[in-house]
Design a protein that fits this description.
Structural class: mainly beta
Number of helices: 3
Distance between the termini: 51 Å
Radius of gyration: 16 Å
Number of strands: 8
DNA sequence: CACATGATCGCCT
DNA sequence: GGCGATCATGTGG
């Protein structure tokens, strides 16, 4: 069989040592904005050849299904590519953009409600600087490709781990990136990020949003 | 630092 | 046939 693309060895980590735990299905079935906020500070992890590799998520975006012009499922579009967005909360939706970069999404809500959270950036340990600072780089660092499309985050080799309670985190909110075509939805405040992380994606790193004029 | 551009291909119209 | 839920590199100020 064809070997999967391996994760970057610098992302090796131990969920138990960090005191992390996995959420249940109900976590993912909540409102998409709530899930997007909760995932900032959580860990995206992959089991590869008996070891865990993972990175702490520092930036996410919510995509609100049929009513959201920026979402692939806008207007209820249901094509083979988008199909995983219609699955039950807690599944993975991976797609290819610009012919070369992959983007990973966590599906939310119930089966039939096509909403998801785009994982835009994550950070590894010291020594892996900005390895996953962008949606394409995040997938590249963990070796996530369309082969992983549709995986169940509660059963398969890609998982989400939540940090312990009282974990410090300052959450920033802005409009989403790269969706200027989306009409009014362009300005919805659906991007969430860790204000104290240096690994957010490169567009707005040194501060706030650029002015958006029509 | 602020743009501009090229690479590259699956998906949708 | 056109265009992205991107990124690295190159130009100019």
């Amino acid at each position: 069989m064809i070997p999967k693309k391996p994760p970057d060895p610098r992302l090796a980590f131990d969920p138990e040592e960090l005191g992390l735990s996995e959420p249940g299905r109900v976590f993912y079935r909540r409102g998409t904005v709530a899930v997007a906020r909760s995932l900032v500070g959580a860990y995206l992890a992959r089991r590869h050849r008996g070891r865990w590799y993972g990175a702490r998520i520092v930036e996410t975006e919510a995509y609100l299904g049929a009513r959201d012009r920026a979402a692939h499922s806008w207007g209820g579009r249901r094509t083979p590519r988008v199909e995983p967005m219609y699955s039950d909360g807690g599944h993975l939706y991976v797609f290819l953009v610009y012919g070369m970069h992959h983007c990973a999404n966590v599906v939310t809500r119930r089966e039939g409600v096509p909403e998801a959270v785009l994982l835009r950036a994550a950070e590894g340990p010291e020594g892996a600087p900005r390895l996953a600072a962008g949606p394409g780089k995040l997938c590249s660092a963990l070796g996530i490709t369309t082969r992983d499309n549709g995986l169940d985050l509660l059963a398969d080799a890609i998982r989400i781990f939540l940090p312990g309670r009282r974990t410090h985190r300052r959450l920033g909110v802005t409009p989403r990136i790269g969706i200027d075509y989306a009409g009014a939805a362009r300005d919805w405040p659906l991007r969430f990020y860790d204000k104290d992380s240096t690994s957010v994606s490169s567009h707005l790193r040194h501060g706030d949003i650029r002015s958006r004029r029509e």
